[in-house]
């Protein structure tokens, strides 16, 4: 969590969904200096804000609101196929004796709740826990995707590497055999590549490999798989392509 001296741009951004101006002003005051609070008045405005602003890290929402209430907003967020909504923390606000709304909110995907009137210490503590946890999950997911990309990508040309090519190829081969469709593979080798390295050095050879990779990508279809198998050897997997098409 940012310190109170942090600039506005560095503060975690929260979405407060509250139709009462008085309650919104009070909650915003509790969070001032720690979070950048974006206030909207109902679930419909909240959904529009979430679609536009990808920097929002957490939602605090009242339940009883006009136009679109908190339950409807929760259901819309959790039903969405937008990746960043998957782990978006949502904290609901309910009255102390309102167990029905609270339980329904959890069923609809809420992460936590605070009771009204809101206690500032409790509110800050719950927001801090969920905001930090969600940020950690996002960082872990980003690292996982990066590692997966590194494991399947040739570091020089940024094409698929040998391992990825054969893994993808096995899947396409199984589908072609099952459905009786065509599948072609092109094997490509740069002629006299050793002469290029000997004349221009390995940096010059690397530039040639990168250039050939770009040419192959620009010359193929979206569904084709271009890979560098190693050295100066490239390969292209061509789904639904016969020998003449290859």
Low-confidence runs (pLDDT<50, min 5 residues)? 1-8
- How far is the N terminus from the C terminus? 56 Å
Radius of gyration: 27 Å
Strand arrangement, major sheet: 2-1-3-4-5
- Strand tally, please? 8
Q: Given the helix and strand composition, which structural class is it?
A: alpha/beta
Rough outline: elongated
Helical residue percent band: 40-55%
Largest sheet, in brief, is: 5 strands, parallel
Instruction: Please give the count of helices.
Output: 7
Q: What would the average pLDDT be, to the nearest integer?
A: 89
How would you spell out the order of helices and strands? EHEHEHEHEHHEHEE
Features:
alpha/beta, elongated, five-stranded parallel sheet, three-stranded antiparallel sheet
Structure description:
The chain has 246 residues and is an alpha/beta fold. It has helices spanning 21-31, 43-52, 70-79, 99-107, 120-152, 162-179, 193-218, and strands at 13-17, 36-40, 56-62, 90-95, 112-116, 183-189, 225-230, 233-239. Helix 2 (43-52) runs parallel beside helix 3 (70-79). The termini are far apart. Residues 1-8 have low confidence and may be disordered.
Concise summary:
The protein has helices at 21-31, 43-52, 70-79, 99-107, 120-152, 162-179, 193-218, and strands spanning 13-17, 36-40, 56-62, 90-95, 112-116, 183-189, 225-230, 233-239. It is an alpha/beta fold and 246 residues long.
SSE arrangement:
Blueprint: E1 13-17, H1 21-31, E2 36-40, H2 43-52, E3 56-62, H3 70-79, E4 90-95, H4 99-107, E5 112-116, H5 120-152, H6 162-179, E6 183-189, H7 193-218, E7 225-230, E8 233-239
Helix pairs in contact: 2-3
């Amino acid at each position: 969590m940012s310190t109170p001296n942090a600039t506005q741009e560095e503060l975690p951004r929260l979405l407060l969904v509250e139709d009462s101006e008085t309650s919104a002003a009070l909650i915003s005051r509790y969070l001032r200096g720690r979070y950048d609070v974006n206030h909207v008045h109902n679930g419909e405005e909240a959904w529009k804000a979430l679609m536009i602003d990808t920097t929002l890290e957490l939602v605090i929402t009242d339940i009883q609101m006009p136009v679109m209430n908190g339950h409807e907003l929760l259901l819309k967020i959790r039903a969405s196929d937008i990746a960043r909504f998957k782990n978006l923390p949502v904290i609901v606000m309910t009255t102390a004796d309102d167990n029905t709304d609270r339980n329904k909110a959890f069923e609809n995907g809420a992460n936590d709740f605070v009771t009204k009137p809101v206690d500032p210490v409790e509110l800050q503590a719950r927001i801090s826990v969920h905001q930090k946890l969600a940020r950690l999950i996002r960082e872990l997911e980003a690292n996982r995707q990066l590692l997966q990309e590194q494991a399947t990508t040739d570091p020089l040309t940024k094409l698929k590497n040998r391992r990825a090519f054969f893994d993808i190829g096995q899947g396409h081969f199984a589908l072609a055999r099952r459905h009786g469709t065509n599948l072609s593979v092109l094997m490509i080798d740069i002629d006299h590549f050793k002469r290029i390295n000997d004349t221009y050095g390995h940096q010059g050879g690397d530039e040639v490999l990168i250039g050939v990779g770009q040419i192959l990508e620009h010359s193929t279809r979206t569904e084709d798989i271009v890979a560098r198998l190693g050295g100066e050897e490239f390969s292209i997997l061509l789904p639904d392509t016969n020998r003449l098409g290859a």
